């Protein structure tokens, strides 16, 4: 079963990986947070793939995946695609 990023984007226009919306070809991604309890702010993470390239990023104290890890993921995928 294949993944159609454009189909997913149409079905879920308010997805959380908004920092990757402008990349082409389409990107599949998952964002998240790791809650350290009362040890400080949440850590953010994002994993993404574009074609045969996969990348991951964790930002300690980043709070939300797209806000902190998203720009790094976008930069990695853009650089890898050049």
Polypeptide structure, described:
The structure is a single chain. This protein has 82 residues and is of the alpha+beta class. Helix content is 28%, strand content 27%. It has helices at residues 5-11, 65-80, and strands spanning 28-34, 43-50, 53-59. A three-stranded antiparallel beta sheet has the order 1-2-3, with helices on one face. A hairpin with an 8-residue loop joins β1 (28-34) and β2 (43-50). The longest helix has 16 residues, at 65-80. The radius of gyration is 13 Å and the shape is elongated.
Task: Characterize this entry briefly.
This protein is α+β, with helices and mostly antiparallel strands and 82 residues long.
The order of strands across the largest sheet is 1-2-3
* Radius of gyration (Å): 13 Å
Number of strands: 3
Average pLDDT rating: 80
Shape call: elongated
Strand content: 25-35%
């Amino acid at each position: 079963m294949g993944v159609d990023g454009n189909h997913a984007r149409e079905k879920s226009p308010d997805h959380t990986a908004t920092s990757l919306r402008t990349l082409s070809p389409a990107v599949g991604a998952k964002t998240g947070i790791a809650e350290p309890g009362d040890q400080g702010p949440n850590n953010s993470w994002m994993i993404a793939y574009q074609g045969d390239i996969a990348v991951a990023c964790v930002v300690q104290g980043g709070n939300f995946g797209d806000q902190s890890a998203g720009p790094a993921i976008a930069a990695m995928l853009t650089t890898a695609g050049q």
